[in-house]
Inverse folding.
């Protein structure tokens, strides 16, 4: 009787905790949940150097123009052991990996999600969204995360050789860790030479990114646009002007061969 009495509150506690709203997988689940949405992406190392690339997604609240608040616990009090936050997912533990790349599989609640960050940078100044439907698998492709250096600035990247040199010299003559620099990210479609998707994810569809949105820096990180400096409106206008000039300029006459 005592055992049954103790079991009741435990069951009630289990029912009060939401089912996994967002998570990543280190191995394939037995089956995909038709009520969830899945995102798969391959991520390389930052600047093709030594540091592993990581991404995070946030559930986006279009009315508030910000990352949605997590679902609160019943009565506003967190149960013992904490209350799982369901408004963000961090891609840190991978499904598979090679020497330089990792493949991630994330399970999300259906709805509107935004690419919130890459490594130490939040894309609060402008990032794209994905509207994820239940029962779908979206392949974002291959992500390239890079330090968004100003044009003409010296590239300062942490590599294995640089870290080894810094360790040998005790850091006296070599700056081992580059100074903080906002990150940006580019995506490209998956090709034959990239990490293959497991058969379970074979029906994945390509990502359909929606328009740029902004949000608060809730992660307290460096800030940037998802596409970096080149995604700024002024940069896009200047690039369009250059392209227009090339297209409207008369072609140069062919050189006359010497006699």
């Amino acid at each position: 009787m005592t055992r049954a009495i103790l079991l009741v509150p435990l069951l009630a506690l289990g029912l009060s905790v939401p089912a996994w709203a967002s998570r990543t997988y280190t191995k394939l689940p037995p089956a995909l949940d038709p009520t969830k949405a899945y995102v798969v992406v391959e991520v390389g190392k930052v600047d093709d150097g030594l540091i592993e690339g990581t991404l995070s997604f946030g559930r986006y609240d279009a009315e508030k123009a910000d990352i949605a608040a997590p679902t609160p616990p019943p009565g506003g009090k967190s149960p013992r052991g904490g209350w799982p936050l369901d408004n963000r997912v961090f891609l840190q533990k991978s499904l598979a990996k090679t020497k330089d790349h990792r493949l991630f599989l994330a399970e999300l609640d259906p709805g509107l999600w935004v690419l919130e960050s890459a490594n130490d940078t939040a894309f609060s100044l402008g990032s794209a969204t994905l509207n994820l439907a239940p029962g779908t698998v979206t392949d974002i492709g291959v992500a390239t995360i890079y330090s968004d250096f100003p044009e003409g600035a010296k590239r300062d990247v942490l590599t294995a050789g640089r870290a080894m040199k810094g360790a040998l010299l005790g850091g006296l003559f070599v700056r081992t860790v580059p100074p903080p620099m906002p990150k940006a990210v580019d995506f490209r479609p998956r090709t034959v030479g990239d990490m293959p998707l497991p058969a379970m994810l074979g029906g994945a569809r390509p990502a359909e990114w929606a328009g740029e949105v902004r949000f608060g820096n809730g992660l307290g990180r460096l800030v940037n646009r998802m596409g970096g400096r080149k995604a700024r409106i002024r940069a896009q206008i200047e690039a369009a002007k250059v392209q227009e000039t090339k297209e409207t300029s008369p072609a140069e006459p062919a050189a006359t061969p010497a006699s």
Summary: The two ends are 111 Å apart (CA to CA). The chain has one domain: 20-150+181-244.
